[in-house]
Design brief:
By secondary structure, this protein is of the alpha+beta class. Helix content is about 50%, strand content about 10%. InterPro entries: EF_Hand_1_Ca_BS (IPR018247). It comes from Lentinula aciculospora. This is EF-hand domain-containing protein.
């Protein structure tokens, strides 16, 4: 039972009671009951009496009084929580009523739904505060209220407001509102007749509610992270899963109401005979979440869903690039929402987007939710730790805030004593100009320092040493850097040294540190925030000194660290061609393209802009005390960030995750260590990539983490832009003076200009910062756990091709019983083409499984060929005329027209090929009933005969038919076919050496021919000869479709491992994709190196005239055999030009001496030895003349270097002629011309608009005149 409040007559007091003044805290509370107000008055009187008589009590009386006081305190605390909840509820009853009816409003019209959605964000803070108070009264419900609060708070940071997610949160809120009926339950621990408490009965239910809230929050988080197209394609699946959570919350709500009803029915709480019903309207409303979600589709979602339905469903849309393109256009998001990397080829980008959407559509949703739940729980833990840290930091100043709020002076609202004095001395009100505030600081501390003999440390603080920060999760081994120094190092107590940094020279950084919103005015709240954010034990002058002179040094240090990490990445992928990098320390070839795409992503351009934008510290820190402060704070902040990053597994999946890691405050304070720690983690993934094959999605997620950090930074820049536009005309210039210029280049035009890129593979000279290597030794690398990978390793080849084929195609199913149609079962055969010179298999050997033939003769089934799986549809007529339509996943189409021969049990006829044209897939079977071939585009060449032949013969036996590809007709041929087929079957089942050797040889040769055929459109290439082409087609006609499909699936990996992919760079002359050596013209390239002419080796000696450039073979060209990134390109092009000029001058000098020798009549026209200039090959030692190749790196010295490697970049010197500069001039003139044309077009358009508006104005004036002056007026 709830403890009875103590009253004055419980203790015999032999002295008269003094007069008691009724304070504000004992006055009546509006809305509270008379009993509550009376008891508050008695409490105040009781406390006043005990205080006044404490000195007059005996020792025994004091002991008794102490016991009574403790009992009273416990009772008062419980009663205060009870009173607080009911008072809060009474004060906000209108909000609770509106929130309770919100779920009902979702059944209304669109206008009511929009209004209800918009008010959800307004009601939520009130509900959360109420639940917090309620959990203090009844701590056992905290498990559910905490989960609900964390999910709502985490989602509040998102910019995207999805109606379906909000509806789910409203359903969740409706369930939680039932808990407010507990506000009148006074003692949940009192037992019923069976010995159970209300808390016991509710415990399991509340735990389940907390779990479902967390899972629902994770599902919504996963849903919101997906692109619009991905969500629309799986809309039915997503809505089904999300609706289940809504129905769960409805069920939990009913269970909560039932538990409360049982509690009342048992008579446990006699004072609460009737519980409130916050949402009684929903009791009679039978509304499921699925019906609500269907009503919340936006017009764009409805349009997309209709488009998908009209084109055959999600599976059909995912097979056509054009349909995906239309969907992306409807979504309004663009390709960037789906693909992380743009190749520059729109068709290829669309194919990549379609493939990614296909994988996303096929991914099991339950598994995806389970995987995201782990990350979401970590994010919730990080959010909870931040809230705990925030409350802990706020508790120690709560008393000061309460006291100062009751006083009249504005200065009393300040937490820090020094700031109170400064504010009072200057008679400032609520805010002051930031510059005035900073300038007043120096005078204030100068005066105080002179009067305190050099120390202004508050006496209650034992040391200036900052305590180790609270970590939300156990820190990794790497997080313990500097942790050993906490106990043994201390800063000097004399902080007079800090005064020199509080002055005019450091006005701007101090101003920015205090003026957090950048408005130019410092408010009391901002000063309190700044003062309370200092590390434990630091005085305010030391804290100010750090931001005045130490923060810039810290930024400069992180700039050097980031450069060092990127250099280590270059070493692993072996971009540093001058470094000795053993083969075992380079990234695997299978990971090379993934790493190239990662390093070439625009996010590294953003990193470069950030680093170049920073104004680094110009000199080393000479002040040992300042350096100690910098090291302390930098290390502690890094450890803190590292702990939170560990908590979210370094996966910044959305911009909303960024503040979970950094905590409150300006992001520019954390951006540099944040990026450094992320890159440091990514470097570990690079180390793993040296010995393990990684999943392609791994590097995509690494890139996304960095992109989300910069998205959060862009939000901050947009906020500053809005503020600065009110005070200055040039925002970019203003950002150049803000935060040491850190954000300047990230604002406005962010076009890539490689000539300015600073991410060089080599260490830059820096005399101000000591740069240490960020690399790890072999032992440290060996200890890197594979668990840091999100998708694990792919060292083993995992393919489902054989498993699927075995379960789908049964060659024994070739004689269906009478219960099935005679066409049902297994078939195999080829599509044959006979042209004027050859008879060959068009698309290789097929195997088909016809699964069903209905009474109408409609055929369905599946098929397999080396290029992939196919769906089979068609029709067989009563005359045994057969039409089959074989449809590939990419919508390529084969239409077979023929008949079934009952005697020979074969299908034969003719075929055509084409593509399905924006038709529903279900229409294919209908088309099969007629001879209409509108769905296909015939690709048959003239004088070609196309036929097909399918039999019941197993696919593995087709290679033994003679002659080539035809059925055996003579008895001898049939006998030979049977013998060979059976022998092959026996060898295959026994795994004989003969069979394995032949199979291996066949696979090797087939893959070789396949790869060469696939790269025929690339340069350089080795096209198949006529004989090799015929050999390739024979192998296609005989190799089992499953084997051929498996081999074909290996081709992309083999190409990536064999050839160098220059990220889809194509030759400017032949337009072929360059896959080996890329030649960059040193003359035909823009000054910013963003665009120029590239050539393949086959076009080396060819000219190219294009708009802005006139390329001739005499131009020097840089040959690169690996992807050259912007940082290396910025160095390589100027150096290559210098080397080319120097080498050409050498050859001209050599030629001039030869000419002089000819004029002098020297024998063999060679100059004398003293005048001879030799140009020798460093490999063979022979004399070299133009055209020739010169090593870029070896020529950096005075002569040929001994360390030349074949992977070094080379310069092509065609002749000794000086390079012309006309191309660059032509490019500039072309650019100016294009701009003039654009201006002219804009002027013409503007002129048309002006003329139209003038005409409208003239018509308007004419109408006015007609009204003012009538037509029949005599004056006219």
């Amino acid at each position: 039972m709830y403890p009875r409040k103590l009253s004055l007559n419980m203790l015999a007091i032999d002295k008269p009671l003094p007069d008691i003044q009724v304070t504000d805290s004992a006055r009546s509370i509006e809305g509270a009951s008379e009993e509550v107000n009376r008891q508050r008055f008695i409490d105040q009187a009781w406390k006043s009496n005990l205080t006044l008589q404490a000195d007059d009590l005996s020792k025994t009386e004091r002991t008794v009084s102490s016991i009574i006081q403790k009992t009273s305190d416990v009772a008062t605390e419980s009663y205060s929580a009870y009173e607080s909840v009911n008072s809060f509820y009474a004060a906000n009853q209108a909000v609770f009523a509106a929130a309770a009816s919100s779920i009902v409003n979702l059944n209304g019209d669109s206008t009511l739904i929009d209004v209800t959605m918009s008010t959800f964000a307004e009601y939520c803070p009130v509900i959360l505060r109420g639940l917090d108070s309620l959990s203090q009264l009844h701590p056992f419900i905290g498990i559910a209220t905490k989960a609900f609060s964390l999910v709502i708070v985490m989602d509040a940071a998102r910019r995207e407001n999805n109606k379906k997610v909000i509806a789910l949160k409203m359903q969740m809120q409706d369930m939680m509102l039932v808990l407010f009926d507990l506000r009148r339950v006074k003692d949940p621990e009192e037992r019923d007749p069976e010995g159970n408490t209300f808390q016991d009965r509710m415990g399991a239910l509340l735990k389940k509610i907390a779990e479902d809230i967390t899972e629902c929050g994770s599902a919504c988080d996963h849903y919101l992270k997906k692109s619009f197209v991905a969500k629309t394609l799986k809309s039915l699946k997503y809505e089904s899963r999300l609706a289940k959570y809504g129905d769960k919350f409805t069920k939990h709500r009913q269970q909560l109401k039932f538990a409360l009803t049982v509690h009342t029915a048992l008579g446990v709480d006699s004072a609460n005979t009737k519980l409130d019903s916050l949402s009684s309207q929903t009791e009679s409303l039978q509304l499921t979440m699925s019906s609500i979600l269907r009503k919340l589709d936006t017009p764009r979602e409805k349009e997309s869903q209709a488009f998908i339905e009209n084109h055959g469903g999600p599976e059909a849309c995912l097979q056509d690039n054009q349909l995906i393109k239309e969907l992306i256009k409807i979504s309004g998001e663009g390709l960037s929402s789906i693909t992380l990397h743009r190749t520059g080829d729109d068709a290829m980008d669309m194919t990549i987007a379609r493939e990614k959407l296909t994988r996303e559509y096929a991914r099991d949703l339950d598994q995806a939710f389970d995987k995201n739940l782990q990350l979401f729980q970590r994010k919730m833990e990080a959010q909870e730790k931040q809230l705990q840290t925030f409350f802990q930091d706020s508790l120690h100043t709560e008393a000061e805030h309460i006291i100062s709020a009751l006083t009249a002076g504005a200065h009393d609202r300040l937490v820090d004593v020094d700031m109170q004095a400064l504010w009072k001395d200057n008679d400032w009100k609520g805010s002051v100009k930031a510059r005035h505030f900073v300038l007043a600081l120096q005078d204030f501390y100068s005066d105080k320092m002179s009067g305190s003999k050099g120390s202004i440390v508050p006496p209650i603080l034992p040391t200036l040493l900052p305590e180790p920060p609270l970590s939300p999760v156990p820190l990794s081994a790497a997080s313990t850097v500097a942790s050993a120094d906490w106990a043994v190092t201390s800063l000097p107590r004399d902080d007079s040294w800090a005064l020199r940094y509080i002055g005019v020279a450091h006005v701007q950084p101090i101003l920015e540190a205090v003026d957090d919103d950048g408005t130019g005015f410092v408010s009391i709240k901002e000063v309190n925030t700044f003062a309370t954010s200092k590390p434990n034990g630091w005085s305010l002058p030391v804290w100010i000194a750090y931001w005045a002179a130490g923060w810039q040094v810290g930024l400069t240090q992180y700039k050097a660290k980031i450069h060092a990490v990127i250099r280590e990445m270059y070493k692993i992928i072996d971009y540093d061609t001058r470094a000795e990098s053993p083969q075992d320390k380079r990234a695997l070839r299978a990971n090379r393209k993934l790493i190239d795409q990662y390093l070439d992503d625009d996010v590294f351009h953003r990193i470069d802009l950030l680093l170049r934008s920073l104004h680094p510290a110009k000199t080393r820190v000479q002040d040992a005390k300042l350096k100690q402060v910098i090291d302390f704070y930098t290390s502690s902040e890094q450890i803190r960030l590292e702990g939170y990053l560990e908590g979210v597994a370094y996966d910044i999946d959305t911009p909303a995750t960024v503040p979970l890691v950094t905590g409150p405050g300006r992001i520019e304070r954390f951006i540099m260590p944040f990026i450094y720690l992320l890159l440091k983690r990514h470097l570990k993934v690079f180390y793993i990539a040296r010995t393990h094959v990684l999943d392609p999605e791994e590097f995509g997620d690494l890139t996304s983490s960095l992109e989300n950090v910069f998205s959060a930074l862009d939000e901050r820049i947009a906020s500053l832009e809005a503020i600065f536009k009110q005070t200055v005309p040039d925002v970019a210039k203003r950002l150049g003076n803000y935060a040491f210029g850190l954000l300047q280049l990230s604002y406005g035009d962010r076009l890539r200009k490689p000539n300015k890129n600073s991410l060089s593979p080599w260490e830059e000279d820096s005399s101000n910062i000591d740069v240490e290597s960020e690399g790890e030794d072999d032992d440290e690398i060996a200890r890197i756990p594979l668990s840091i990978l999100k998708y694990g390793v792919k060292d083993t080849l995992e393919s489902q091709i054989y498993k699927h084929s075995i379960s789908t195609f049964d060659y024994n199913d070739n004689n269906p019983d009478t219960s099935r149609h005679f066409l049902s079962g297994y078939w195999a055969g080829n599509l044959w083409t006979q042209d004027w010179e050859e008879f060959y298999s068009t698309q290789g050997l097929f195997q088909i499984s016809i699964t069903n033939v209905n009474d109408a003769g409609e055929i369905t089934g599946v098929a397999e060929a080396y290029q992939g799986l196919l769906t089979v549809s068609g029709l067989i007529t009563s005359e045994n005329h057969v039409r089959l339509v074989l449809l590939y996943e990419d919508k390529d189409l084969v239409t077979c027209e023929g008949s079934w021969n009952s005697e020979r049990n074969v299908l034969s006829g003719t075929f055509t090929t084409g593509r399905l044209r924006k038709r529903k897939r279900k229409a294919i079977a209908n088309d099969a009933a007629s001879s209409n071939t509108s769905t296909t585009k015939v690709t048959r060449k003239k004088k070609e005969t196309t036929t097909f032949l399918f039999t019941r013969t197993p696919a593995f036996a087709w290679r033994f038919h003679t002659p080539f590809g035809q059925l055996s007709t003579t008895p001898r041929a049939r006998w030979a076919f049977a013998c060979n087929a059976v022998l092959d079957l026996v060898r295959r089942r026994s795994g004989s050496w003969h069979y394995l050797r032949n199979r291996t040889g066949e696979r090797t040769r087939f893959l070789e021919l396949l790869v060469r055929r696939e790269v025929e459109d690339c340069s350089p290439s080795n096209p198949l000869s006529a004989e090799e082409g015929k050999e390739h087609r024979v192998m296609l006609a005989t190799i089992h479709p499953t084997d051929a499909r498996f081999y074909y699936s290996l081709v992309p990996s083999i190409i990536e491992a064999t050839y160098t992919d220059h990220l889809d760079c194509s030759c400017s002359k032949c337009d072929k994709t360059i896959i080996q050596s890329r030649l960059i013209c040193l003359t035909c390239i823009r000054n910013d190196l963003s665009r120029g002419l590239d050539f393949c080796l086959e076009c080396l000696e060819l000219s190219k005239n294009t708009k802005g450039y006139k390329h001739v073979p005499s131009h020097a060209m840089l040959k690169v055999d690996s992807v050259i990134l912007d940082g290396l390109l910025a160095w390589a092009i100027p150096e290559a030009r210098h080397v080319a000029t120097r080498v050409k001058r050498v050859f001209r000098t050599k030629q001039s001496r030869i000419n002089e020798a000819q004029q002098e009549g020297t024998k063999d026209a060679r100059p004398k030895k003293s005048k001879r200039m030799e140009t020798m090959c460093c490999c063979c030692g022979k004399e070299v003349n133009t055209p020739c190749w010169v090593c870029l790196f070896c020529m950096l010295s005075d002569g040929p270097a001994s360390w030349h490697e074949h992977k070094d970049h080379l310069i092509r010197i065609h002749d000794a002629e000086e390079a012309e500069e006309l191309s660059a001039t032509d490019a500039k003139l072309s650019l100016v011309e294009n701009r003039l044309v654009g201006v002219e077009n804009q002027f013409i358009e503007f002129k048309g608009v002006v003329n139209e508006r003038l005409s409208q104005l003239e018509d308007t004036l004419q109408k006015i005149l007609l009204h003012v002056v009538p037509n029949d007026s005599p004056s006219q």
